[in-house]
Amino acid sequence: MTSPSTPEAPWPVRTVARKVAEWIGRLGEVWVEGQIAQLSRRGAATVFLTLRDPAADLSVPVTCSRDVADRPGLELTEGARVIVRARPDYYIARGSFSLRATEIRAVGLGELLARIERIRRLLAAEGLFDAARKRPLPFAPAVVGVVTGRDSAAERDVLVTARRRWPAIRFAVHHSLVQGPSAAASVIEGLQRLDRDPEVEVIVVARGGGSVEDLLPFSDEGLVRAIAACRTPVVTAVGHETDTTLVDHAVDVRAATPTDAAHRVVPEIGEQRRLVDGLRARARHLVGTRLEQQERWLESVRSRPVLADPQRLLHGRADDVEQLRTRARRTLVHRLEGAERDLEHARARVAALSPAATLERGYAVVQRADGSLVRDPAEVADGELLRVRVAGGRLPVRVDRAADPAPPTQEDA
Amino acid sequence: MTESAEPTTTYEQAREELADVVRRLEAGGLTLEESLALWERGEELAKLCQHWLDRARERLAAAAPGDDAGRE
């Protein structure tokens, strides 16, 4: 209908676009198999995929509605292999080509990954992946169990790194198959053997990187359950950091690499030694300070006068005694002098009262023979013997009235 | 001090009693006999305290840092 285009009469863009769209639209529906290289859900209603040919370096864009991409039971992930029922489509507004998918089926690995995802959901629902199940790793295990491939880089990484951090570490290594149909059973066997060994305090399951298919045994349901059943804490280092297998969900610690696993399981001896040294120095300092404090206290108590100078106990006492003695002596002397004075007085009084003084003045005392004093001449008979006492002594006399002519007078009375 | 047997009195007990002895001596009001007996007890207690502190020093010195026995 349209005349052929010439440099003189070129077609407008819309004509070309419409013609291309018509031609492509006549191609009809096809079934195509490929690998999802990119997956984008940024559109509200449309999902964009990049479908890659695994065997050749080329790809085509695929679009589909969300209903098609989110069909129940279908797991679209990057790397998954899919079979797509699609119609080649030319988007006229942008001039872009895509396959418009009406049905997507998982295939091969995609199907396997979908199955793994179903197992993951099942085990998660059983609580096998719960954070509460995660056990802490022992601080410095004496024996580390290792399940790994024989002579693998993973084994070497774990052993070398762990020994460098803690030279005294011991290993119980179980070599197992790490890929292929028997790998899961082989790893389970090693795991259970090490778990039964009471010396093994932690088990490392290590395997280097590999393709998604290579790592499939580590998503085996039986292996995941065996790990969950272990009494010994388990650490995995399977594949690269970006690969996630189901065992990684069930273990107590997931390490990024075998080297990282060794770091997690074994403490660094130098660091521990510094820690211990630091604590030791602090303890010593504390005890030392305390001791010095007590020593100072004891020194201060010992230097107190009551303890340092026991002579003082006596000093005061001796003074007291001396003082009392002086007081006693003074009192006694005092008393003695008083007594002497008293005696003097008494003596003077005795002297004053004695008749001797009277006799001295010339008086005489006359006594009868019986000692009675003669106070009246009538008391004595003529011729009676009397005694006369004068100052000078005694004198016996005889009464002779006839010899005395003078009558008795009163002057003597 | 004889090393035959460790005293049964702990450092804290000895220290407390020593402080009490000094306090009583300083307070006075005792007979000579009493104060002498107290002083003798105080000397004994001070020696005991010294003994414990000396022992502690020795033990601290015995565990001197730098003894690298932990290396395996």
CATH architecture identity of the largest domain in chain A: 3-Layer(aba) Sandwich
The CA-CA distance between the termini of chain A, in Å, is 215 Å
CATH class of the largest domain in chain A: Alpha Beta
Domain module tally of chain B: 1
Largest interface: A-B, 24 and 24 residues
Question: What does this entry look like structurally?
Answer:
The complex is a heterodimer of chains A (about 425) and B (about 70). With about 425 residues, chain A is α/β, with parallel strands linked by helices. Chain A has five domains: about 15-105, Nucleic acid-binding proteins (OB fold (Dihydrolipoamide Acetyltransferase, E2P), Beta Barrel), CATH 2.40.50.140; about 115-265, 3-Layer(aba) Sandwich (Rossmann fold); about 270-310; about 325-355; about 355-405, no CATH class. Chain A is about 40% helix and about 20% strand. Chain A has helices spanning about 15-25, 65-70, 110-125, 155-165, 185-195, 220-230, 245-250, 260-265, 270-300, 305-310, 310-355, 355-360, and strands spanning about 30-40, 45-50, 60-65, 80-90, 95-105, 145-150, 170-175, 200-205, 235-240, 255, 365, 385-390, 395-400. A five-stranded mixed barrel of chain A has the order 1-2-3-5-4. A five-stranded parallel β-sheet of chain A has the order 7-6-8-9-10, with helices on both faces. In chain A, strands 11-12-13 form a three-stranded antiparallel β-sheet. In chain A, helix 4 (about 155-165) packs parallel to helix 8 (about 260-265) and helix 5 runs parallel beside helix 6 (about 220-230). The longest helix of chain A has about 45 residues, at about 310-355. Chain B has helices at about 10-25, 30-60. Chain B is mostly helical and about 70 residues long. Chain B has two helices and no strands. Chain B has one domain. The interface between A and B is medium-sized, with 24 and 24 residues.
